[in-house]
Amino acid sequence: MTRPEASTGTTRFVAWLLTFGGIVILSVWLYGTLQVKSVSVPKLEVSITVQPTLEAAREVVRRYFESPDDEGRIGCLHEMNRVGSLWRDFYHQRAKSLPMLGSIPTGEMVTHEGRVMAFFTLELSPGGRQPMALIWEGDRFSIDWESHVAYGTMDWIEWVESKPTEPQILRVYLSEPGIGNERSGERQVAVEHRDSLRPELAETPATVDFTIGFQGRQRVPVTAEFQFQERSGNRILILSRLIHEGWSH
User: Fold this and answer.
1) Residue 149 to residue 194: CA distance in whole angstroms
2) What pLDDT, in 10s, does the model give residues 181-211?
3) 3 state DSSP class of 71
4) Confidence of residue 79 (pLDDT cuts 50, 70, 90)
5) What SS3 class is residue 158?
6) pTM for the full model?
7) Is residue 135 within a helix (H) or strand (E), and if so which, with residue range?
8) Do 178 and 164 touch, CB atoms closer than 8 A?
9) Span 81-134, pLDDT tens digits
């Protein structure tokens, strides 16, 4: 004969198991029903196209003149890795002074040989004006510094006075020689620099690929290689290589 206490305990235990099992089943069902499934959000790729504007070019000019150090100024230059050493040579070894910017008058945007460029004629302080061209590189403007300062491997005045026989690359203007200035037997051009007081007469040997046409043009800017050659006790100026028309690299 079963004792009442044992029967009651068994019944309570079974009831507890049934209750616990029901709670577990209900919890699993609720979890499956209420679970928030992760939603895959597609990535949005936003492409921002930077457009060349005169104001963007003007801002680079300001940053160049207002920068407190060499690195900041060189960072504004076109082909800065190549031109940086030329810049340092110009302003440190040759001790050229960097002018102060007065104002940036209204410039113009042009497309030259497939490149978008901005041109300004800067007003300097305390006086003077100087042209500057900037080249669009796809996402920013950079300063064409070599054309800005008419950079050459020697300063014009030193070059004319010393007449070195070693070839030098210069950014100059070429024009046809005036009547009475020609030397017979050789093709010649008149060579002028921004710092020159008068033009120099240079021979252009037939071996030089000279492609400049002066039709209707009095002064043509070029980048060329020159050297002086000894001849009968004198040093004669020779245009030994025409690199390209214009001063931009």
Assistant:
1) 9
2) 555 567 899 999 998 889 999 999 999 999 9
3) helix
4) very high
5) helix
6) 0.75
7) strand 129-136
8) no
9) 999 999 999 999 999 999 999 999 989 999 988 899 999 999 999 889 999 999
- pLDDT attached to residue 48: 59
Distance between CA 173 and CA 150 in Å, rounded?
10
CA atoms within 13 A on the CB side of 9: 5
Task: Please tell me the distance from the alpha carbon of residue 171 to that of residue 121, in angstroms, as a whole number.
Answer: 18
Residue 155: other Cβ atoms inside 10 A: 16
Look up residue 218 and give its amino acid: Q
What number of other Cβ atoms are within 10 A of residue 116's Cβ?
17
CB 116 within 8 A of CB 53: no
Token digits for 104?
A: 């940036």
Burial class for 58, CB neighbours closer than 10 Å (0-12, 13-18, 19+): middle
Contact between 29 and 93 under an 8 Å Cβ cutoff? The reply is no
Question: Cβ contacts of residue 74 below 8 Å, gap of 6+?
Answer: 80, 83, 84, 87, 88
Q: With 70 as the cut, is the pLDDT of residue 66 above it?
A: yes
Residues 6+ apart with CB under 8 A from 76: 60, 63, 64, 67, 142, 143
State both tokens at 18.
Answer: 């049934």
* Side chain identity, residue 61: V
Question: How far apart (Å, rounded) are the C-alpha atoms in residues 122 and 36?
Answer: 64
The two structure tokens encoding residue 2:
């079963």
